[in-house]
Amino acid sequence: MMKRVLLATSGGDCPGLNAVIRGVVKRAAMEGNWEVLGSIQAYNGILWEPTEIKILTESTVKDIHNLGGTIIETTNKGGPFAWPLFNKQTGQWEYVDRSDEMIRKLRLMGVDAVICIGGDGSQRISHQLYEKGLDIVGVPKTIDNDLSATDLTFGFRTAVQIATEAIDKLVTTAASHNRTFIMEVMGRNTGWIALEAALAGGADVCLIPEIPYDVNKIIDKLNSKYKRGRGYAIIVVAEGAQPKDGHIVAEKADEIGYSNMRMGGIAFELSRQLKEAGFEGDIRETVLGHLQRGGVPVAYDRILATRFGVKAFELVKDGLFGQMVSFKQSEIISVPLSEAVGHTKFVEPDSEIVHAARSCGISFGD
Ligand code: F6P
After folding, report:
1. How far is the CA of 163 from the centre of ligand 1 (A)?
2. pLDDT by residue (tens digit) across 233-256?
3. pLDDT, tens digit, for every residue of 269-314?
4. Helix and strand totals (H; E) in the chain
5. Counting Cβ atoms within 10 Å, is residue 331 exposed (0-12), middle (13-18) or buried (19+)?
6. Three-state secondary structure call for residue 92
7. Beta bridge pairs of residue 237
8. Residue 144 designated active-site
9. Among 262, 291, 345, residue to substitute to test ligand 1 (most atoms within 8 Å of Cβ)
């Protein structure tokens, strides 16, 4: 008898999503009695009328392992527990819980199980759906690498590679003009991308949320890089970095079906702080932004994503629901969704990697 598994990619996109999809589809094809469906834009595809579902076959996923983005699209707005509905009488948007209806729809469609590829917020939803009786498996994704339930998430290595290449490019222009460049990278409340890119790119200063900075300490470091006005420096700053006694640069983003703190802008804020504190060098700012999430995933991410996809399908096949795949000590394992969500993995200020960075002369501004 044919069985059906439905895939959804949820939250911000991340290089490697397509490799996960391909891994699931190819592994399922080996069984011969599984059909794989993709719901367009996370769960919207099921909740929309008419539904938007794509049948994913081996030919649909041919050659997508090196493709950025997700062939079944994604969204970080709404979701089955908070579906935005416009109330014409009040003129306000309201949120309705459509999770029961969604589970009913999935059963009517003959879906036996769901695999949700998403970050922390999406896996919270997976856990809630599991508690409501849906047979679901999670696959973690984020370029931020900030989930404690897994040593690594796919997409992170690609983001670090992109940021490192950006530093390499900034160095040549910085050196030519005797300038200081501030390069802002993503990472939300953690400094993993900043730290690894700073190490790989040989930056002079690395500012991360886990180590609040003192602007005068940064200036000391910058001045040491100049002799009689000539020299250059590279500062890598994580979007969530903040000064001692200061605050994160973020604004409330309230879109329909989405409410979050949108981070970004610390590069310009830091530039202002440096000038105000007396730094005399020429400063330029670069915000890498979504470039870090775009394009071709590096080989490591394709491999990790493929392994996650294969494991996720095998959990489904073996009936091990309520689990999230995870990479621990070089092994692909699974952990209960209940333990997987809500635990952020921060950079440890006393860790070996921070020590290595300091040993190579990188200042954390502390
Ligand atoms: O979590 C991944 C991430 O890229 C963060 O690093 C960043 O702060 C955020 O998503 C950006 O989200 P959006 O695509 O909604 O602007």
Report:
1. 15
2. 999 999 999 999 999 999 988 888
3. 999 999 999 999 999 999 999 999 999 999 999 999 999 999 999 9
4. 11, 17
5. exposed
6. strand
7. 184, 207
8. yes
9. 262
